[in-house]
Amino acid sequence: MADVRFLSNAIAEFYRSHSSELIDSYSDTCLRRVWKAQRFSWWMTQIFHRFPGEVPFDQRRQLAELDYVATSTAAATALAENYAGLPME
Q1: pLDDT digits (tens, 9 = 90+) for 30-75
Q2: C-alpha dist (Å) from residue 3 to 6, 23, 30
């Protein structure tokens, strides 16, 4: 949905002002958001799932990450912002 919004804004701006600035930056804009979503997805996956070959260190690190999210306002805020959806830039 974010890509559609960015593209529709870029097309509208092009026809409104004949500026191709938003169209030219469309891929970079969308890819920044996509990679942020990928980073969050991997972060959530690695703190909530066990993987083959994990050692006790990995499991303790996972528990420490969960504890940090549960006890830190900053971490909880970051989780909520990413889970609810990154801001539309």
Answers
A1: 998 889 999 999 999 999 999 999 999 999 999 999 999 999 999 9
A2: 5, 12, 6
